[in-house]
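Sample entry follows:

_____
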Amino acid sequence: MAVWATRPRTSDLPFHAGFIQPCQAVLSSKAPSGPEWVHEIKHDGYRILARREGDLLRLWSRNGRDWSDDLRSIAFAIRRLSVTSVVLDGEAVAHDADGLPDFFGLRRGEQAARAHLFAFDLLELNGEDLRTLPLIDRKARLERLLRRAPGAVTYVEHLDADGPTMFKHACQLGLEGIVSKRRRAPYRSGPDPNWLKIKNASYARR
């Protein structure tokens, strides 16, 4: 874990200190089936790796761009978690005036400031590296952590349903698609076939 001076401004923190390259889902033309897989709704936003140590916080994109000063509601919510340190993986999503996801809203200052983090993985908690644990165990800890979290951070639930059936329902609801993950897989940085993304070909980005 990186060690930083006490209470510097966010912009003064070492830019890539503690950065972990996120796991990347591999594109698939078909959702998998079977009990070894779980499935999550795919949210349309910016991938964010959130790292906090005490009062110090970084919100990185998957390519290492720093969003700490832009996603203010998310930063505020993560600072309120009852932890000494944490690393979350999730998707930052902006919403329009009607409460609908607005991908391009993340490029507008006020909408980005009110964006919401949909957290789907927990990489570290209170100094313990959790990446070698099975996905299902990491998600169980994440769910407990976020049970009383502020509104700008939400736990992404998974379903044990049949993958193709869940993908069909996601398309009927006009969603971007689903992400299917092997329930016993550890967390690995970079492209990983244990994570599959299945995209709705009819999805229209807002």
